[in-house]
Structure formats: C-alpha cells, structure tokens
C-alpha cells in the first residue's frame, strides 16, 4: 500500500514548518546578520535571536531589541544580504520584494541601486 505523501521529497513549506531537528536535513532557525547603522553607517554583526538590546559601537544607537523569539530591528536599520558571486537564480531581498541580482551564466549582475563589499577572508 503506497503512502499518501512522499517522505523523501517534502515540499519547502512543510520543511519550513517542521521543528529544526525533525527536518530532512537538520539546521537551526537562527543566524548571524550584518546590520548597518543609519547614524554612522558602521556595520555590526548581530545574532538573529538576540536576547539583549544591541547598540552601535560607533554612536550608541539601538540597532535591535529582543522580542520573544527573533530580535526586531530598529526602524532605519537594515540587514545586509550575503550573496554568492556566481548565483544561478535571482536573489530577492528579505525585507521587500526587490531582486538583488540577476544570473548571467557567470558572475551574477547586481540590480541598479545595489552595492557590494567583499567579506574579509
């Protein structure tokens, strides 16, 4: 008797709803993000589920505040997205619906208005 659903190939929606340890490939819900301060434009690395207020080292502005789960970014602060330089598909911004880059077969082409910086090795 066949199963009603495929256990080996779950849909992305089902996989996202599952507990972090019960997914097909285990991975955490938390991550580290680079946040740019709107006051002094300094970049700070922040944990997504920070449990304390994170302030900018340059100007002492509050970057994010804790909630029950994920930390909430202060208005004006924004998360810097990390992209693979040779991305094979269009990468959307997490905060809005804008596409950050377009695939070209080789290096991905950034959308007008986007800028990049190389991460130190």
UniProtKB/TrEMBL annotation:
Q: Which InterPro entries match?
A: Ribosomal_eS27, Ribosomal_eS27_Zn-bd_dom_sf, Ribosomal_zn-bd
The cofactors named for this UniProt entry are:
Zn(2+)
Q: Source organism's superkingdom?
A: Eukaryota
Q: Name one GO molecular function term.
A: zinc ion binding
Q: Which UniProt keywords apply?
A: Metal-binding, Ribonucleoprotein, Ribosomal protein, Zinc, Zinc-finger
A single Gene Ontology CC annotation of this entry is: ribonucleoprotein complex
Please share the entry's free-text remark on the cofactor. Answer: Binds 1 zinc ion per subunit.
Database matches in Gene3D superfamilies: Zn-binding ribosomal proteins
Output one GO BP term: translation
Protein family: Belongs to the eukaryotic ribosomal protein eS27 family.
Q: What is this protein called?
A: 40S ribosomal protein S27
Taxonomic source organism: Laodelphax striatellus
């Amino acid at each position: 008797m066949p199963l009603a659903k495929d256990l080996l190939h779950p849909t992305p929606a089902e996989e996202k709803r599952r507990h972090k340890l019960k997914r097909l490939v285990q991975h955490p819900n938390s991550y580290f993000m680079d946040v740019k301060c709107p006051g002094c434009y300094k970049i700070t690395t922040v944990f997504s589920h920070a449990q304390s207020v994170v302030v900018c080292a340059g100007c002492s502005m509050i970057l994010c505040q804790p909630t029950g789960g994920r930390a909430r970014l202060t208005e004006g602060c924004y998360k810097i997205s990390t992209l693979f330089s040779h991305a094979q598909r269009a990468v959307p911004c997490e905060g809005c619906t804008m596409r950050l880059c377009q695939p070209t077969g080789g290096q991905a082409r950034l959308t007008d208005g986007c800028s990049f910086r190389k991460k130190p090795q």
